[in-house]
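Hi everyone, sorry if this is the wrong subforum. Our group has a chain we'd like a structural model of before ordering constructs, and none of us has done structure prediction before. Sequence below.
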Amino acid sequence: MPRWLALVGIIVLSRIVSTGLMLWFAGGQSENPWTGAHPDLFEFSRIWDSHWYRIVAEVGYPSELPLDHGRVAENAWAFMPVYPTLVRAAMAASGAPFAIVSVVVSVAAFAAFIVVADRFFRSIVGERAALGAVAIVAFSPVAPVFQVGYAESLGLLFVALALVGLVERRWWLAYLAVPLAAFTRPVGVPLALAAGILFLIALRTRRDRGVLGGLTAVAGLAALGWPALAWWGTGRMTAYLETELAWRRPYVGNTAHGWGTGWWDSAKWWFPDIWPWILGGLALAVIVLAALPATRRLGSVSLAWLGSYLVYLVIVLFPQSSIFRLLAPMFPFAGVISTSRTRTWIAVIAGVVGQYFWIRWMWSVEGSDWTPP
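Answer:
Right subforum, don't worry. Here is the predicted structure as tokens:
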């Protein structure tokens, strides 16, 4: 079978599975803050954070931050501009509404991501395992998010392009993709950290030092770029940080939040008894330690990215139901699983089953829902 046909098959079949599950749950969806009862596929795909992307695409960002008892409230500055700007342009060109255009843009970005990810995986795990790796990602439990009004597909595309640029030493591609990724999803900091790690390695090998040092600087500036624009647009220096923290307030109230405290705050919210977190942490540590030997074959670029993104999540994340979606940028780990055909099939089947529960528990809305996707 030609490779392009295999990739098309993965793209199409994975979207059929996710679309079928989305339609199933849309048929049973009750009235909610975003739609009436039993919405169609496109309306069902524009709920949750998609509503914020719609605001940005149709209205833009507020010049004055909304306040809730003196503190910055949830607002559009939490959502970066590349995806809604692209959707706005497509809406203007086609005349179609956000609900339709956002899905089309996300699906197109997903298809492009699969093609680029296949090229990335081929360079680190070989031809056969690469197809298994992209299939694992395409059918993963959070795969429905790749076709809704979220920036995930586009963000993953730019991250994959950056990784390809680094692996193949196509520096122009890395220099282009890193800022685009940083202005699509909040991945600028881990990209800067990953580039910095590779720069330190280059200092030892005396190869590509200049280009990696420059990329580290570009990534760092890109990471600071959106908070700086939020400051410029609102006149408030901490506008972006305060906006992000506004999403924690329903969980932890108006207490101060320091870097790295999100996991502790989350533990107190979800499990007042700390033992589930201790046991979960130990289980995760066992899994990570067991997987470490296998990750070596992924190469320095993948490991730098995976380690940097994991550190970033530990420092800034408030773990709740959206954590599953936020793990999607760690897609290079699929290259470890795909080296075994049996593991690949198990992962794909488990992913499809996981999609059912992800849509049911996270995407579908039931009353005062505390499980945002």
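For your construct planning: The chain has a mean pLDDT of 91. The beta strands are 67-68, 71-72.
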